[in-house]
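Narrative of accomplishments. A recurring question from our advisory board has been how the design workflow behaves on a single, concrete structure rather than in aggregate. To address it, we present the structure tokens for one chain from the evaluation set, followed by the sequence designed for it. No filtering or post-editing was applied between the two.
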């Protein structure tokens, strides 16, 4: 009788798992079926693993489909590309491949592998292995779940489903953060994203790993911070990182964090800039939330301290320039206060638009918004052709005269074409 109940439970679970897969878009389901069918032809076993299974169980949108293959993932990827078309990228060293089918998202096909770390914070040495070893190498129990594509069996070797149900983030072994300190930052992102909690045992492992953050490369470390800005609640993520000492571990006594800064950053990231600012989702090739996020975050640092932060994190040039521009402009605002519109225009002309928006958010200085929405668009009626027609030889004097005319318009000294003409004659006579 007990045996029969076990069979019924297994069938019920598999039925639930199959139903769970139907939550995926039809195209994704089709791709998984193609992978399973081709894997079976080659005598390979294919599994949907990690975040995809986690988010299916949590009934959240699945952003990534990671497929682990017991066998050669590149062999399977080549077969899929040959049969169904699409583009293929392979990484022979790690025996992984990315298949971009003719329709649908790219799919990562990963040979099941074992990872060993020769030194803390170093990239691991990789060797082909079993699904069990592949799941054991992962960061947290909630990311160790796997669905076998052939029969929808759920493989749960590390109690990941129970931790999902209890809302817990748990590392798999005591050296997890030491092996890979980027997991410290990932843990906080998951904790905040899902409203979960780090287990007491996992929390207790953090202090010993903090000194190893300095061994992480700039690229790996900044990538983790970039991902924080892409979360739904980035300020909560960064606040929790600060609470646990993760921000201080990057650059001790340099990276700022306090409640006022958190509020400013929240204002910059939660609501998209109003249309009159003319800012889209990207700025000079970078996501706007990253440009604004770093600019506001680093705004209270001196330009030299931002340069020091850049040495550690190697920001993209757009991010760096905007952060430096905000810092410099904030320092100059007391001097500019009460200046004429023309003085503001002369000073703000070369400041990047994203930096202007960030500075306005932080300072509330109305002149910055007036510049963006009004003053920068005010120009004299006279242009270079008109000056040439008046007999003035082209040269640097052109720019000087045109600026004098523009400044007069900006400051209200000229309000009509006739008044501009009178001023132009006065300039010529002088």
């Amino acid at each position: 009788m007990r045996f029969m109940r076990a069979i019924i439970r297994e069938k019920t679970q598999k039925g639930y798992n199959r139903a769970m897969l139907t939550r995926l878009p039809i195209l994704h389901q089709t791709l998984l079926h193609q992978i399973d069918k081709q894997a079976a032809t080659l005598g390979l076993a294919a599994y949907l693993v990690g975040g995809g299974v986690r988010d299916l169980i949590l009934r959240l949108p699945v952003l990534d489909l990671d497929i682990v293959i017991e066998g050669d993932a590149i062999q399977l990827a080549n077969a899929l590309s040959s049969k169904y078309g699409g583009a293929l990228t392979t990484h022979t060293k790690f025996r992984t491949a990315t298949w971009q089918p003719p329709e649908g998202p790219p799919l990562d096909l990963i040979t099941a592998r074992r990872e060993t770390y020769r030194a803390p914070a170093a990239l691991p040495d990789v060797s082909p292995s079993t699904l069990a070893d592949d799941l054991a190498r992962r960061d947290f129990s909630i990311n160790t779940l796997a669905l076998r594509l052939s029969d929808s069996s759920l493989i749960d070797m590390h109690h990941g489903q129970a931790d999902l149900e209890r809302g817990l983030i748990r590392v798999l072994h005591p050296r997890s953060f030491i092996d890979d300190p980027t997991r410290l930052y990932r843990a906080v992102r998951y904790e905040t994203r899902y409203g979960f909690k780090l287990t007491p045992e996992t929390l207790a492992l953090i202090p010993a790993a903090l000194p190893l953050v300095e061994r992480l490369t700039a690229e790996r470390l900044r990538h983790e911070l970039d991902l924080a800005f892409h979360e739904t609640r980035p300020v909560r993520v960064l606040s929790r990182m600060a609470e646990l000492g993760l921000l201080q571990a990057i650059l001790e006594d340099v990276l700022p964090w306090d409640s006022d800064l958190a509020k400013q950053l929240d204002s910059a990231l939660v609501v998209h800039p109003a249309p009159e600012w003319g800012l889209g989702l990207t700025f000079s090739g970078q996501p706007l939330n990253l440009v604004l996020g770093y600019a506001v975050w680093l705004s209270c640092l001196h330009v030299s301290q931002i340069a020091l932060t850049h040495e550690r994190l190697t920001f993209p040039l757009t991010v760096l320039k905007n952060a430096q521009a905000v810092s410099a402009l904030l320092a100059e605002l007391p001097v500019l206060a009460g200046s004429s519109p023309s003085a503001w225009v002369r000073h703000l002309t070369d400041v990047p638009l994203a930096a202007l928006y960030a500075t306005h958010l932080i300072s509330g200085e109305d002149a910055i918004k007036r510049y963006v929405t009004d003053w920068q668009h005010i120009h004299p009626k006279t242009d270079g052709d008109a000056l040439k027609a008046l007999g003035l030889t082209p040269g640097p004097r052109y720019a000087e005269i045109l600026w004098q005319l523009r400044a007069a318009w900006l400051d209200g000294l000229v309000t009509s074409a006739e008044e501009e003409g009178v001023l132009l004659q006065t300039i010529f006579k002088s």
